[in-house]
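Entry type: protein chain
Record version: 2
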Amino acid sequence: MKPLNAKVDRPISFRDDEVNGWTVDFSAATASGKTASVRLRRVYQMPGQALVRVPLEEEGMYGFLYYPAEGGPFPAVLILAGSNGGVYEWLAQAFASSGFAALTLPYFNYRDLPQELVEIPLEYFHRAVAWLKKQPAVKADRIAVAGGSKGGELALLIASLFNDFQAVVAWTPGAHAWEGLSQKFFSPDYVSVSSWALNGRGLPFIKFVYTQEERELEQKGALNSFIAAHHRSLAQADPALLEKAAIPVEKIKAPILLISGTDDQTWPASEFCREIVAKLQKINFPFELKAISHEGGGHMSFLPFLITANRGGINGGNPQADAKAGFISWRETIAFLRRHLD
């Protein structure tokens, strides 16, 4: 669907309810004035399938664990948000409806957690997995991590640091640790910091290098691609720093699924995935390594059931490619997790 006579070039935003699903009202009218309407509610929990929702709120950790009301214990998935932060209850519902226990774990932009994605302590995720293993509904030795975008970067990073996972799913991930995302980025006194920290110290990171034109466009909300900026940032980084900031995926001791789209305009995720694959093939990675690249897919082409029309902007892709890729990605993700967790 496309809005008629849209007054702005930016994509249309859709209001959503991440717990109860998206509601869309359709109406149609004939030339003679006859009308009809219907309401569609897109849910992420399969109708007729009861789920249990367990809040996590202890020792500075927050989140919600979902799992089927009948059966168990279940293999589990730790869900990591991307650059918007917060909780992804809808995604936890979708995983739980497919037979998993799923913990959506916010790590910034939620309650009293950090408000920005800067120097997030990685120990936080290790503690969350320890909590997850103690839950009666969870198979403690069958846990995966799944994240998209910055969450994909994070999933690979913590899997390389902590031997907590039996499977790793990284949707449109980065291959390096990147600069933190702060609202102060364009301030004259801004000092670059890492997205992640370990043992109280920021990890080595790749600094963003923007042209003045890109900065001006981004401040106006009119920059439609960050690809050139990411390429420039990597090209201008010191080779020694480039090596230090690279995620040590060779240390991951679990199967890995990588998913990306060739028209991602947020960052060149398909290139990053190829780099990861090449590094792992060079060391004869002993676990399953599967990489899926969707031709024409954008940054959000890894999840189904999302509205793909008018997405555009830094997401890239097109509605048809994103819709098709979302269903393929979800099917592949569930199959991959069942292969390695059941």
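Comment: Residues 319-341 form the longest helix (23 residues).
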